[in-house]
Model the fold of this input.
Amino acid sequence: MKLLVTGGAGFIGSAFVRLILDLREPPAIVNLDKLTYAGNLENLDPIASRSGYRFVRGDICDAPLVDALIQEERPDAMIHFAAESHVDRSILSPSPVIETNLRGTFTLLEAARQNHVPRFVHVSTDEVYGSVPRPLEADENFPLNPSSPYSASKAGSDLLARAYFTTYRVPVIVTRASNNYGPYQFPEKLLPLMISNALEGRPLPVYGDGQQIRDWLYVDDHCRAIHAALEKGREGEIYNIGGSRSLPNIEVIRKILAATGAPETLIRYVEDRPGHDRRYALSSAKIMKETGWAPQVSFEDGLAHTIEWYQRNTGWVARVKSEEYRNYYARNYESRSEHIEPAS
Ligand code: NAD
Ligand code: DAU
Done:
């Protein structure tokens, strides 16, 4: 068994590669990654010298490269993680998001079609459903209603993947997961940003009133679900993957403050994200029923482990907070006006 993984130097892709290579009979893995600001080979240090693992630096939009790689490696399956994955960056600069998430996915699907790749797992997100009104939970038939350039690009790439199944019978499976957290997450996303700011005594920027709800999924649980979908999922199907733990952002932030011992005075309510989705909520009943998958890590355990990882890996954090990161941080946060917490 050989897997071609895209985006395997990012947060979730690298967790998947580490997890899969620790299986009793691991498949060979070829990891194709462009190493954008979010890709980091340090994330793969624990497995980099394993036999059966190969890293290739390249762009998923580069059709000749993708084609040649597939012809050379003849993978049994492709697991497609590579993306521009951050909503705030997609609002500031949509162009690379459209290029990678749409053209890149198209390039991979087309190469899979031409080379008859036997399985293609397209890793997507619950953001494609947009804000889900209480008390509903989105199942796989819930209408698509993306709000940001990021989520619209993911919805578009999901539809392309589905079209490649319907039209060409490319054996595609689409997975849609909720908010991931865990070690090695780039500190632009809510949890690692708040954890590292709290540990460094910096302000914690809460968008709007902080009452937006996200469903938290520990990254290894997500990777186990993708593996279950790869092994037991049905071609042409979509599988939602939720963490079964919905929390308002401000509660997550208060838990981080409590765990790190940082003071609540670090909280700053700042101007909201444009088009900010109020609530994500997923039903994962289908993947649970069809594959037997269920999340194993409670939010409390996962958060404690994650905070401990960021406390132990200050060198990793310092290295990823490069000039590029500092420029992004200034662009995204410095012009945001502060306001006082609205009365609840
Ligand atoms: P990430 O930003 O941490 O990593 C993305 C990886 O893709 C990086 O290694 C980057 O170098 C690589 N990449 C980007 N553009 C590329 C290109 N053109 N060619 C080759 N490689 C490229 O992202 P993540 O959080 O690990 O997310 C991985 C996937 O999971 C994405 O498709 C994302 O939409 C999806 N997803 C993420 C979450 C989440 O909470 N983070 C939840 C659900 C789904
Ligand atoms: O739901 C799955 C999605 O989760 C993935 O598809 C995306 O790749 C991933 O980035 C994530 O998107 P979100 O927009 O939900 O995650 P983010 O960590 O950016 O924000 C989580 C919530 O926290 C959201 O309501 C915005 C809020 N937030 C975020 C940041 C970075 C803040 O209040 N302040 C912040 O500084």
In short: The longest strand covers residues 28-33. Residues 2-181+217-243+277-296 form a domain with the Rossmann fold fold (CATH 3.40.50.720). Residues 120 and 172 are 5 Å apart (CA to CA). DSSP finds twelve helices and 13 strands in the chain.
